[in-house]
Amino acid sequence: MPELPEVETVKRTLNTLVQGKKIQKVTVRLPRIIRRPDDIRVFETMLEGHTIERVERRGKFLRFLLDGLVLVSHLRMEGRYGLYAAEEPLDKHTHVIFHFEDGTELRYTDVRQFGTMDLFLPGDDLSLPPLNKLGLEPLDPEFTPEAFKDLVAGKNTKIKPLLLNQAYVVGIGNIYVDESLHRAGIHPETAAKSLTAEQLNRLHQAIVATLTEAVNAGGSSVKSYVNGQGVSGSYQHKLLIYGRKDQACYSCGSVVEKSVVGGRGTHFCPSCQPLLLM
Ligand SMILES: [Zn+2]
């Protein structure tokens, strides 16, 4: 599943591709992608004649800001966007098509069909599900070491599932949690409430540094993820721990282990990230 760096890359690419384009018509070929409004004909009709002013991101969600509407899109496992000339043949997995007045089309393709789209009036999108209960943006200025400490303090859970919980911090998924915990030297099963102030500082720094570097690299292409322009990100070549089971840790040479934490496959170095029982 794309995480913050990959969605940020898709957002930036979409802004170069569709900013200022006016929608002539929308075709929904797979109704289940559209969650709001209930009636896909209403969805199609509402978008007609509107112009995409820009695309923003909140957590792992894309927000298409149109003149008078906001379209919230989640790519989930395999969703992707591409801009095509109208005459190019359709892929069988293309589920939603935004036909623009200039003869181009933004196509949403999703092999796994888990992606979602919700259409709102401006302002409503941030006060209603799915965006209303999201936590702090880790690359925004308000994500300070103090704000992070306040979030984690006293929480009766392991640190990895806490970091995956989008109600606390948004955009971090399995890959970047493992990377951040490894950089901070913290075992993924450490109880959140037992982390010291110094460990929390290190973890905060590790999250910001990891996500910033991944955004700068255009994200990771671990599976078949490709950004909106058909260009692969390169951060998968820089991953320190994720996907490296049974290989030598870059820092200490120990064998990287993989276990299951909170139901998710989890990579860690047992030497650099000891589990301290307190
Ligand atoms: Zn190590």
Automatic annotation (TrEMBL):
<feature type="active site" description="Proton donor">
    <location>
        <position position="3"/>
    </location>
</feature>
<keyword id="KW-0862">Zinc</keyword>
<keyword id="KW-0479">Metal-binding</keyword>
<keyword id="KW-0456">Lyase</keyword>
<dbReference type="InterPro" id="IPR035937">
    <property type="entry name" value="FPG_N"/>
</dbReference>
<feature type="active site" description="Proton donor; for beta-elimination activity">
    <location>
        <position position="60"/>
    </location>
</feature>
<feature type="active site" description="Schiff-base intermediate with DNA">
    <location>
        <position position="2"/>
    </location>
</feature>
<comment type="subunit">
    <text>Monomer.</text>
</comment>
<dbReference type="InterPro" id="IPR020629">
    <property type="entry name" value="FPG_Glyclase"/>
</dbReference>
<dbReference type="InterPro" id="IPR015886">
    <property type="entry name" value="H2TH_FPG"/>
</dbReference>
<feature type="binding site">
    <location>
        <position position="155"/>
    </location>
    <ligand>
        <name>DNA</name>
    </ligand>
</feature>
<dbReference type="Pfam" id="PF01149">
    <property type="entry name" value="Fapy_DNA_glyco"/>
</dbReference>
<feature type="domain" description="Formamidopyrimidine-DNA glycosylase catalytic">
    <location>
        <begin position="2"/>
        <end position="115"/>
    </location>
</feature>
<feature type="domain" description="FPG-type">
    <location>
        <begin position="240"/>
        <end position="274"/>
    </location>
</feature>
<dbReference type="GO" id="GO:0008270">
    <property type="term" value="F:zinc ion binding"/>
</dbReference>
<dbReference type="GO" id="GO:0003684">
    <property type="term" value="F:damaged DNA binding"/>
</dbReference>
<keyword id="KW-0863">Zinc-finger</keyword>
<dbReference type="GO" id="GO:0140078">
    <property type="term" value="F:class I DNA-(apurinic or apyrimidinic site) endonuclease activity"/>
</dbReference>
<dbReference type="InterPro" id="IPR012319">
    <property type="entry name" value="FPG_cat"/>
</dbReference>
<keyword id="KW-0238">DNA-binding</keyword>
<dbReference type="InterPro" id="IPR010979">
    <property type="entry name" value="Ribosomal_uS13-like_H2TH"/>
</dbReference>
<dbReference type="GO" id="GO:0034039">
    <property type="term" value="F:8-oxo-7,8-dihydroguanine DNA N-glycosylase activity"/>
</dbReference>
<dbReference type="Pfam" id="PF06831">
    <property type="entry name" value="H2TH"/>
</dbReference>
<dbReference type="InterPro" id="IPR010663">
    <property type="entry name" value="Znf_FPG/IleRS"/>
</dbReference>
<keyword id="KW-0234">DNA repair</keyword>
<comment type="similarity">
    <text>Belongs to the FPG family.</text>
</comment>
<keyword id="KW-0511">Multifunctional enzyme</keyword>
<keyword id="KW-0326">Glycosidase</keyword>
<keyword id="KW-0378">Hydrolase</keyword>
<dbReference type="GO" id="GO:0003690">
    <property type="term" value="F:double-stranded DNA binding"/>
</dbReference>
<comment type="function">
    <text>Involved in base excision repair of DNA damaged by oxidation or by mutagenic agents. Acts as DNA glycosylase that recognizes and removes damaged bases. Has a preference for oxidized purines, such as 7,8-dihydro-8-oxoguanine (8-oxoG). Has AP (apurinic/apyrimidinic) lyase activity and introduces nicks in the DNA strand. Cleaves the DNA backbone by beta-delta elimination to generate a single-strand break at the site of the removed base with both 3'- and 5'-phosphates.</text>
</comment>
<dbReference type="InterPro" id="IPR015887">
    <property type="entry name" value="DNA_glyclase_Znf_dom_DNA_BS"/>
</dbReference>
<dbReference type="GO" id="GO:0006284">
    <property type="term" value="P:base-excision repair"/>
</dbReference>
<protein>
    <recommendedName>
        <fullName>Formamidopyrimidine-DNA glycosylase</fullName>
        <ecNumber>3.2.2.23</ecNumber>
        <ecNumber>4.2.99.18</ecNumber>
    </recommendedName>
</protein>
<feature type="active site" description="Proton donor; for delta-elimination activity">
    <location>
        <position position="264"/>
    </location>
</feature>
<dbReference type="Pfam" id="PF06827">
    <property type="entry name" value="zf-FPG_IleRS"/>
</dbReference>
<dbReference type="InterPro" id="IPR000214">
    <property type="entry name" value="Znf_DNA_glyclase/AP_lyase"/>
</dbReference>
<feature type="binding site">
    <location>
        <position position="93"/>
    </location>
    <ligand>
        <name>DNA</name>
    </ligand>
</feature>
<feature type="binding site">
    <location>
        <position position="112"/>
    </location>
    <ligand>
        <name>DNA</name>
    </ligand>
</feature>
<keyword id="KW-0227">DNA damage</keyword>
